[in-house]
Write a structure and sequence with these properties.
This protein is α/β, with parallel strands linked by helices. Helices cover about 35% and strands about 25% of the residues. The chain has an eight-stranded parallel β-sheet. A seven-stranded mixed β-sheet has the order 3-2-7-18-19-20-21, covered by helices on one side. Strands 5-4-1-6 form a four-stranded mixed β-sheet, with no helix packed on it. Strand 2 and strand 3 form a beta hairpin. Helix 2 runs parallel beside helix 3 and helix 2 crosses helix 15. The longest helix has 19 residues. The radius of gyration is 22 Å and the shape is globular.
Length: about 475
């Protein structure tokens, strides 16, 4: 018999209203699903079920879609570089500090496990991960139970920061081309994976570290495969100024001239477009171009807010007709906290509580993410859609009292209220813990890996500084 799960008499269902392309609340109905998809949303399910669960004091909502994150060594950096940056590069820490921690091959499994576990625990069911191609990536992503889009990055130039004030580029065109070939081989393998839940994404790493012909060739290769393209663009002022020096164009203008932009493209971050107050431009054309091309922006507010940077604003992008979806980029790999920060940053940037609301943020983390990936069967609860869903415990103290459950979840409770997560009808999180991964083991392992990476940081820093010099601790260490 086909496995059918029914959640009976659900307190609150975040259902999809197809006529108006929006989410709505429904109260008191059933949610039934199996491996083939959702069978009932909000009505009474009269079919035969193998498992019945009470929906009392529960909210069932669609799984969240994270369209931009990085596993690799990112989980190792937690608690180290939050208070540092390169002043001459507008306070951005990435160029000078991101390469000094290297966990090596041994760290990959633990970092990926921690990232996937954290994202699923916070309600993410679809995850687009940009990292280096390796076999274990496929194995662990499939084992996790998540719906994963794997994007092996490639580029022709590395960043080099001289004396903490000048950013240069070391070019190796042949190596970048070789990496491109390997990336295409990998994304084809991901798409062919027997789990049916994996796919590939073609990912030239940054707009400024790839030659124009490589960017164009990458877009062509992706389109031949019917795959999504993602590239970091307009993510920092250093990149913005470099592109102006080379081309006289913003990142959006440059990619549009190359023919890269389109509805199959996700731009990582896209903060410093021509309307941003930090730039030298006095035009306001980039958002209109993005909207016209149907290009998606992956908005990851937390990591940039740590460096004093923000999109101006999420509300403004949406009003301009730009499809903006949510990613976490690096730690803390928490979709619900990321959504809260997105809302707060947008209101701060717009200087108004009315710049954006909770429904807008939820839309960005679900329907907009599905649109970015060219899908109409995820990010929503409707009959026939994939059975990717999250069960929220409304009795969790952080949720009570409940007037509007999504507001309680996003503004207060976050992952503490996530009880169960299903992908393709299979239970991937139960009682707030991943069911398919050794998450606890990876968390224990990652401490030793961070200690080891920190001990070697000086060998990767051009100036030979120790981790204590690179990232002094918050408080002085005294005594033993």
């Amino acid at each position: 018999m086909t496995e059918i799960t029914v959640i009976r008499d659900v307190d609150t269902i975040v259902a999809y209203d197809a006529a108006n392309d929006r989410h709505v609340y429904r109260h008191g109905g059933d949610v039934a699903f199996g491996a083939t998809g959702l069978l009932c949303v909000g009505d009474r399910f009269e079919g035969q079920a193998t498992t019945e669960i009470s929906g009392k004091a529960r909210m069932v909502m669609p799984g969240l879609i994270n369209i931009h994150c990085h596993s690799h060594d990112e989980p190792l950096a937690k608690g180290i570089f939050e208070d540092v940056g390169t002043a001459a590069l507008w306070g951005q820490a990435m160029y000078e500090f991101s390469n000094v921690l290297d966990g090596g091959e041994d760290a990959r499994a633990a970092c990926l496990t921690v990232m996937l576990g954290d994202l699923m625990r916070s309600g993410a069911t679809t995850i687009l991960d940009i990292a280096g191609a390796h076999d274990i990536w496929l194995d662990i992503a499939a084992k996790s139970g998540a719906r994963a889009y794997l994007a092996p990055g490639f580029r022709q130039a590395d960043w080099v920061v001289h004396d903490s004030h000048r950013l240069d580029f070391e070019w190796n065109d042949a190596a970048g081309r070789d990496a491109f070939v390997r990336a295409l081989e990998f994304v084809d393998r991901a798409r062919a994976h027997p789990s049916g839940r994996l796919d590939g994404v073609v990912s030239p790493s940054q707009v400024e570290t790839c030659r124009p012909d490589l960017l164009a060739d990458a877009a062509e290769a992706a389109r031949k495969r019917g795959m999504t393209i993602t590239v970091h663009a307009a993510q920092t002022m250093a990149e913005h100024e470099e592109l102006l020096r080379r081309t006289g164009l913003t990142a959006v203008q440059y990619l549009d001239r190359l023919g890269v932009l389109g509805s199959d493209v996700i731009l990582g971050h896209c903060i410093f477009a021509d309307h941003h107050s930090w730039t030298r431009q006095r035009t306001r054309d980039d958002l209109a171009t993005l909207a016209k091309r149907g290009t998606t922006v992956a908005h990851c507010p937390v990591t940039f807010a740590r460096s004093g940077m923000a999109l101006e604003t999420l509300g403004a992008y949406r009003r301009a007709g730009v499809n903006v979806a949510i990613g976490t980029d690096s730690y803390p790999f928490n979709m619900l906290e990321e959504m809260r920060q997105a809302l707060i940053c947008s209101r701060l940037g717009g200087k108004s509580v009315f710049d954006i609301n909770t429904a807008d943020i939820f839309d960005a983390a679900t329907l907009a993410g599905a649109k970015a990936l060219g899908r109409s069967d995820i990010g929503r609860l409707s009959v026939g859609a994939k059975a990717d869903l999250v069960v929220i415990d409304l009795d969790t103290p952080a949720m009570r009292p409940v007037y509007d459950p999504l507001r309680s979840l996003l503004h207060c409770a976050a992952e503490r209220a996530v009880e169960r997560v299903y992908v393709d009808g299979q239970l991937t999180v139960d009682g707030g813990k991943p069911t398919q991964l050794d998450y606890d083991g990876a968390v224990r392992e990652i401490q030793a890996l961070q200690d080891w990476a920190c001990s070697r940081a000086g060998s990767y820093d051009p100036r030979g500084r120790s981790i204590g010099e690179l990232a002094p601790k918050s408080l002085p260490v005294v005594g033993n």
